[in-house]
Amino acid sequence: MQKISANGRLYYCKNCSKVHFEFLNKGVDFEDFKAVKEFTKFLFSLNYDYYQEKNKTSRYRKKIIIPFPDEKARLFLNIAEVEELKKLFESFILERYKREDRSEFKGFLSYTIDFPKASLN
User: Fold this and answer.
1) What is the rounded CA–CA span in Å between residue 20 and residue 32?
2) Which of 24, 63, 76, 102 is positioned for an S-S bond with 55, CB 3.0–4.6 A?
């Protein structure tokens, strides 16, 4: 199973049982589907205004900064890239929902789809 966007790809590898994610020039391996769901929840909770204000004096051109917990790496994105990323992860999750045991999605899909602009504050 894989989903592709203009700048990224998200796919499940049967050989290593991980979900591989690449976007722009960054790649991350998610150990399990739970990690993918948590990252998706984080994406849908991003408050763009908060990050643009917080990072307005930063020297980085892109003001939305997404850290990865196990690495010292971060994604630097603009609003359009975050929206593309959200669509990529959402389509991947919806595809898995169609194919897999739906009980693991109880309450999750409505969270991501119904509340796309929730604040982190």
Assistant:
1) 10
2) 63
